[in-house]
Amino acid sequence: MQNRLPHLHQRWNEGCTNIGQLHREAKALGSRGSYATVYAYLAPFRGTAAPPAVPGPPKVRHITSWIRRRPGNLDAGEQLTLKQVRAACPHLDALRGHAGEFAKMLTGRHGERPGAWISAVRAGDLPHLHSFASGLERDHAAVLAGLTLPCSSGAVEGKVGKIKFLKRLMFGRASYDLLRKMALLN
Question: I need a surface site. Which of 25, 76, 79, 146 has the fewest CB within 10 A?
Answer without folding.
Answer: 76
